[in-house]
Structure formats: structure tokens, C-alpha cells
Amino acid sequence: MVIDFLTNSSDILLYTLAVIIIFATILALLAKLFKQPSILAYILAGVILGPLFFGLISKSDFLVSLSNLGVAFLLFIVGLSLNFRVLKEVGKISLITGIGQVIFTSLVGYIIIRAIGIEVIPAIYISVALTFSSTIIIVKLLSDKKVIDTLYGRISVGFLIVQDFIAIFALILISGISGKVNTDELFLSTIKNGLFLLIFVYLFSKYFLNRLFNYLAKSQELLFMFSIAWCFTVSLVSLYFGFSIEMGAFLAGISIASLPYTFDIIGKLVSLRDFFIVLFFVYLGLQITSFNDIISVIPVGLLLSLFVLIGNPLIVMVLIGLFGYKKNVGFFTGLAVAQISEFSLILVNLGYNLGHLTRYHVSLVTFVGIITITLSSYMIIYSEKIYKKLERHLWIFERKGVLKNNHSFNNKKYDVLILGGHRLARCIIEYLRKNKKKILVVDYDPEIVKLLNKKKINTFYADVSNIDVLKEIPFNKVKVVISTIPSREDNLVVLDYLNGIEKKPKVFLTTQHMHEAKELYNNKADYVILPYLISGENVVEILGKIMKDKKYLDKLKKEQLKMILGSDIASYQLTN
User: Which of 7, 112, 158, 333 would be 90's cystine partner, CB 3.0–4.6 Å?
Assistant: First the structure.
């Protein structure tokens, strides 16, 4: 054995971490060279280092613990990016999509599995296992693509949370079937403990955290340390109440999401998250232990993998389309369920330990996990390219006539046209209404459109990434266009179109990144909103000043360009 020379546990720990990081880094570099997702490189590192090939490392309790830390930090950061209001916004569609997808996938999956010849009990286990999608994989990919805060990103995270709750109750049910626990008592206990956990987080967040963080923010070190301490505190409380540390970490993030230090905390934690999450993906690769296990399940595994990769997205696209969302939202959200979850592996392993499943069934689900996680990673990474290829065929998933725009464009002029009615747009809308400005809001989220319609705000239900939609919007009758949509692609489409019309309005665009801001300025944006530097209230203040002084915007733009471009400002002014 390679590690026989190691004499104590600390040496083994150092050896294991060193080998994992070295191999994972080398394979990640090769993946980048060939333009492949890094997640695949990390999983492959686990396969190569595990018993299937070199046997350089083995599964151990400390490796499981470290990989769980990566999951916890990942979900903590996701929680920081959300708040209770966001969950409320997408709660309805997320709940319906989450439950609906689990029901339809398990029913169709059960029929397929039984038709193959697998017995009833294993068929139930496997069909349920196929319904759960990996929160970790999806959140990681959506975060890397910077689309976690888009409409489909928020819906995806919402229904993944719903799925996680269903998975927990499935595990409770199986424990009850085994006769080891009283299912009714455990169910009631879970509800009670869940309420206690939520109340604890809510009260602490409301009455203590705001003041505490305001004090700690004077020291960057203390802010960083207390953020981690708070994550661990809620995780331990979650564990005490019978839930996972991952759920606790997610709630810890949500509880401080509304604080003004969110972006600063995220920036400090991202590197820590990335280090530990690598260990999770390597651990996932270690699950493959034998060539015989793989060969025996290939035919059935490929069939079930196709069902997960194609069937799951189709089910979600139908459900989302029925509730009035555009086909692109349904498509991108559907891709988020094109793999199975870590909960799926936990579920079948529990069934194996209870004697309900054989090693063949466990290997089958593990094989489907590796295949679907790998291929779905590509599907999500290249989702925009796939969508463009399939767009003209996806009209069947878009329900017509769900919403009617509450106005016509005939002879109407607007002071401000807002693209995207979410978050940042709200205080802008309220300010403009108070000042009796004529506004028009364009959004493709049916729930936001319905809310604005109730407030009697002019809305246009449309997706601005579609050039045909842009042609319907009266930009030549607008003084200022503000896009609160952080999508680089959507903003470039809007800019390109507006640069081609005669009476181009002033254009404000939103992005999360400096390099994208530079690109938008190069494409003749009048001002770029960077949310981590400027709030909705600041945008409102700018609007008020430019309506009184037209030269103020030029001054503001120059100041921002100096910050973004630094010494390159001279060359920028020469070329623009």
C-alpha cells in the first residue's frame, strides 16, 4: 500500500489532502485546456485516485466531513444571495414545480423500471431516487455562470429546496417502513423541530444580528470570522434539531442576506467554498469501486440516464409553461433537473443497509448519478447555445394568452422604461410614481407582472432577449431606459438594438462585474449600475439629478470609468 510509510493520522490527513489537491488541480488544468467543466475533472480525480484505478486514497470519515464543509459553505453563500422576500416571490412556482416534477418523474420512472423487469420494492426506491436533483451541482454551476439571481436561477434554487424537503421526508418514511421508528411520531417531531429552528434563526436575525454586524464591520477580520461562526452556529443548532448542517448553513445565509455587508462576506468566502467543494466532487468519484459494478449496469443505466437527462427537463418545461412563463425560463430551469442528487445515493444506500436493495441496485443508481451529473454539467454550461439551436421548436411549451398587457403603445410617451421589475427596480418604480413620472416596466416573470398590474403600473409582459420583442417596445418615446437585468447577453442585445434606432434614449444597464461594465461602456452604454457599489436608492438619486442637469450623467460616467479603467482611461476616451 502506498501509504504504509505514514505513521500517524495527521500524516495520513496531510497525504490525502495533498494527493487530492495535486491530482484535482492537474486534471482541472487539462479540463480548462480542452474547455471542459472543472466539476468533471474533480469527479474523475476521485475515480482515478480511488480503488478502481490506483487506490491512492480511500473513503474516510474526515474526508466526508471536509466535503460536507464544502456543501455547507456553498449553501451559506447561496443563502446570502437570497432573502425571505425572494423565496416568497418564487415560492408558488417553485413549490408546484418541485412537487409536480417529483410526482411525474417517480410515476413515469416506476413504469419504465418495472417494464425492465426490476421488482416492485427496488423499483419504488430507484424511481424515487431519480426524482431528486443535485442542489450542490446546480448551485455551483449557476453560481459560476453568474445566473443564480436570474428568474430561472431563483426558481431552480426554490424547487431544489422543495425537493430537499421531500427527500428528507422520504428518508423518514423508509425508516418507518423498516420498523425501527414510529413514522407518525417522527413526522410530528420533524415539523415541531423545523418550526423551532426557523423561529430561532428569525428572532436572532431580527433582534441581534443587524446591530452585531454593524459593530463588527469596523474590522474586516472580525466580519469574516463572525460570518463563519454564525454559519457554524446555525448548522449546529440545525443538527441538534435533527436536520442537516447544510440546511442550517443555508438558513444562516438567508438570515443575514439583507445586511449591507453581503457582497463583502461573499467575496471573502468564495475561495474557502471552492477549496472544500473540490473535496466533495472528488469524494463523489470515489463511489465507483469496481469495473464489474459498472459493466453489469450499463444497459439499464444508460436507459435511466436518458430518462433523467431528457424526461426530467420536459416535465419541468411543461409545468412552468402552464403557469405562463416564457419558453426560455422553462428550458433553462428544466436543464437544472437533468441529473440525480446526493440524496439519491443516500436513499439507495439506506435501502441497501435495510436489505431492500442489492449491490446491483446501488451500483445502478451510482452509475446514473455519474453519467447524469457529467452530461448535465455540459448542458447547463452550454445552455444558451443549446437553446438557440432548439428555440424555434420550443413554442409548444409556452402557453399563450396567460397575461395581457394592461396598456397600448399608441401615442404614449414615457419618462423611464424599466427592463426587469425585480429587486433593484422596486425603489426606482416607487420613486418615479411619487414624482408622477410616466413609467413602463418590461418583465417576463408572470408573478411580477401580476403584482405591478394590481398597482396599476404600465407593464409589458415580454422577454427582452428576443429581438422581435424589442421591436414592439416604443424606445423612441422614452427618455431613459434602465435595465436591472444583470445578464450580459441580454444587455448587449438591448444595447445593440438601441444603437440602431434614431432617437436613442439614455441607457442605464446593470452588471455584477467590472470587466462587463467596461464592455457595456465600449458598446455605448450611458451608465452602468454595479449593485455592490450602488443601491437602488443611489440610482434614484442619480435619476433625480440628471432630470434637472443633463451634464451630471457625463460627469458621473467619467468618474466611474476612472475607477474601472484606471490608467486605461486615456485610451478609452481616444477610441470612444
Answer: 158
